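Data deposition worksheet. Section B asks for the primary sequence of the deposited chain exactly as it was used as input, without tags or linkers unless they were present during the calculation. Section C holds the resulting structure in C-alpha cell form. Section D is free text for depositor observations; keep each observation to a single sentence. Incomplete worksheets are returned to the depositor.
Section A, Depositor: J.P.
Section B:
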Amino acid sequence: ISAFAQQSRKIDSIIKANRLTIYKNPDETIRIGDSIYEASKSSGDKIRGLILISNAYSSKRDYQQALKYCLRADSISKKLDEPNLKANLLNSIAVIYQQLKVYDKAMEYLDENDRYLDNNPVKDSIYLRATNNVVRGLVYKEDLSCELAIPFFNKAIEQYKKLNTTNEQPNISITLYNRAYCFLALERYEEAKESFELSIVYAENTNAKSLKAFSLKGLSEVYTHEKEYEKAIGVLEEARQLAEDVGDLILNRGIYLAFADNYLAVNNWEKYKEYRKLFLENQYIIKESERRSISDSIDELTANYEQKTANLTNRYYICTGIIILLILLAVFVILRYHKKAKKSLNNLKLRFEEVKKARKGMGIL
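Section C:
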C-alpha cells in the first residue's frame, strides 16, 4: 500500500509538470501519458495517464483521439470512488464536447461537475471551477453571445490567479485570448488589444509557443480591423515561426487565412494566392478530422442510448413479471379463501340442518 501511495504521488507530480508540456510539446506529453498508463498498477493512475493523453490530443486539435482516450478513462472510472479524479474526468469530457461543438452535452457535463463539486471534497475544486467557467464562456461565445461569455471569462481569470502557481499561466493565457476575441467581435478594439497582449505575456511566462502564436494571430486581427496591414503581417510572421514547432492545424489555418486577407488588402496577389492555397489545404484536413470525431461522438451517444434503452426494457420486463406474479398470488389467495369460506358455509348449513332435525324430533318448532 505504501509503495502504491508513493507511486501515485510521483505520478501526480509528473502530470502537474506536464500540464505545461502539453502546449510546448504535446507529442512528448502523449508519450509520458502512455508510459504512465502502461506502468501503473492502480486504476486511478491509469485514468490519470489517459486524461493526460486526451488533453494532449485536444491541444493538437485531434478530437477523435482525445475523445477515445477520455471515454476509455470514463469506463474505468465507474469502478472507482475518487472524488478528485471523477471531477477532473467530468471536466475533461465537458471540454471535449465543447470542442466538438456538442454544446448541450458539454453543458450537461458542466452542470454535473458543478453539482459534484458542491457535494464532494475535491482537492482541485478552485482549478476545476475556473475551468468550468472558461468552458461555459466558450459555449456562450460560440453559441449565444459574447456579452454573456465575458463575465464567465473574467470570473475564471480571477479564480486561476488565486492559485498563484505556474501551472495556471497557460489557462489564464487561453482565457484572455478568448475574452479578447469577444472584445474584437463587439468592436471594443483597445480592450481586445490589451487582452491579446496580456495573453502573450502569460504564454511567454511558461514558453507556451502555441498559445503565444494564437495570441499573436489574434493581435494581428486587431491591426487588420484598424487597417494597419503591414503591422499585422509583421505580427503574423512571428506567429508563423512559432507555429512551425507546434504542428497545430487550427493555428496554421488561422495564420494562413490572416496572411491571405492582409496580403489581399495590400494588393500582393502572389502572396495572397500562396497563403490562400495553404489555408484551403489545412481546411480540408481539419474538416476530415472533425467529421471522424463527430462520427465517434455520435457512435458513443448511440451506444449510451442503446444501453439506456436496454436497461429500461429489462426494468420493464422485470416490473411486468413482478406484477404478474403478484396478481397470480392474489388470485391464488382469493380462490383459497373462497374455497375455505365455501367449505365453512357448507359446514354451517349441515350443522343448521342437524340442529333443525333435532329440534323437530323433540317437538320443538
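Section D:
Residues 130 and 158 are 8 Å apart (CA to CA).
The chain is about 85% helix and 0% strand.
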